[in-house]
Amino acid sequence: MTRVIETEEHQALRSAVAALGKRYGREYLTRVVAEGDYPDELWSETAKLGYLGANLPEAYGGGGGGIAELSIVLEELGAAGCPLLMLVVSPAICGTVIARFGTEAQKQQWLPGFADGSRTMAFGITEPDAGSNSHRITTTARRDGTDWILSGRKVFISGVDIADATLVVGRTEDARTGRLKPCLFIVPRDADGFGRRPIDMELHGAEKQFELTLDDVRLPADALVGDEDAGLLQLFAGLNPERVMTAAFAIGMGRFALSRAVEYARDRSVWKQPIGAHQAIAHPLAQAHIDLELARLMMQKAAHLYDSGDDVAAGEAANMAKYAAGEACVKAVDQAVHTLGGNGLTREFGLASLITASRVARIAPVSREMILNYVSHQTLGLPKSY
């Protein structure tokens, strides 16, 4: 049964991470981004305190928890205004896949570094011509003796410049059917034929976005993660945590925006009483809070199901959590900016930049429309239109 009330351990973790985030805050992250740097100090301290690898096995230096614990870390850092997007990618996606399906050598090579912050890994799935249709992925891998030759393109891949390697989703040909099936490969950042080009984004974040080219990249046999014949199972073992963590990212951002708006509405007086006393201001903020709390409940359910090993149920809940959190975040940010009026567009209050950032959870890692497709087909049993 899914717990509705958090355990004392989870509450303690939430409080401790909130205190860490408060020491850094939005101003720290804004400065780092403006300088074109990465929040290394926050990343290192998060690792030192044991939060970075909260979901990784204790045998490899992790906290022995699950996505439930890691989502708390990301949410609370986000609520403090300093979320770490690479938490979604490195320990959540790549760490989970390697911990579940990697060889012992792969686990030894990567998991301790993920946990102590000394190593990071990016994740490459999106392609220019595939969009949300993962069945159209054209990055292919072919055998050459014991090696693999990987060729293709990826786009909107986060943090490649700071990552030691990228976990790339490619496709291999099934010798029996001739069909292409997904497989996961670890591609070192300095591999011959592995190129990257930064994408000029209106969205300014610490983690840059890249287009990748894989031009006959030769990889050893041990670059393959998991079983060649179980690609989809292994792929979704990483994608479900990605959706849960995206929900945590969105909820944290929404909470940060809402807290700024509530503080402003409590203190700002134009007539005799603070503007927060007026229902036209108070009620939309209350609705935003309710929506964020409801999204968190679904996120907690999804994390619980995933950590308990119920991948099928976790897939449904993770998609719903991501959808709910994305919608709640956008509404919270919009209402926060509106509450502050002109001040909501100033650098001083740090909300205007969230107008663009908040839309990320609606778009990535899968659009809200594709989640509605998933629910209508998988949950409600309605026919497909595509």
Rounded average pLDDT: 94
The Cα radius of gyration reads: 21 Å
Give the end-to-end Cα distance, rounded to a whole number of Å: 36 Å
Element order: H for helix, E for strand:
HHHHHEEEEEEEEHHHHHH
Q: How much strand?
A: 5-15%
Give the strand line-up of the largest sheet.
1-4-5-8
For the biggest sheet, the summary is: 4 strands, mixed
Total beta strand runs: 8
How much helix is in the residues?
40-55%
- Global shape: globular
Overall structural class, as computed from helix and strand content, comes to alpha+beta
Low-pLDDT runs: none
The DSSP helix count reads 11
Write up what this structure looks like.
With 386 residues, the protein is of the alpha+beta class. 51% of the residues lie in helices and 15% in strands. A four-stranded mixed β-sheet has the order 1-4-5-8, with helices on one face. Strands 2-3-7-6 form a four-stranded antiparallel β-sheet, with no helix packed on it. Helix 6 packs antiparallel against helix 7 (279-307). The longest helix has 37 residues, at 231-267.
List the topology elements:
Blueprint: H1 8-34, H2 40-48, H3 67-79, H4 86-101, H5 104-116, E1 121-124, E2 140-144, E3 147-158, E4 165-173, E5 180-188, E6 194-198, E7 209-219, E8 224-225, H6 231-267, H7 279-307, H8 311-340, H9 352-357, H10 360-363, H11 368-379
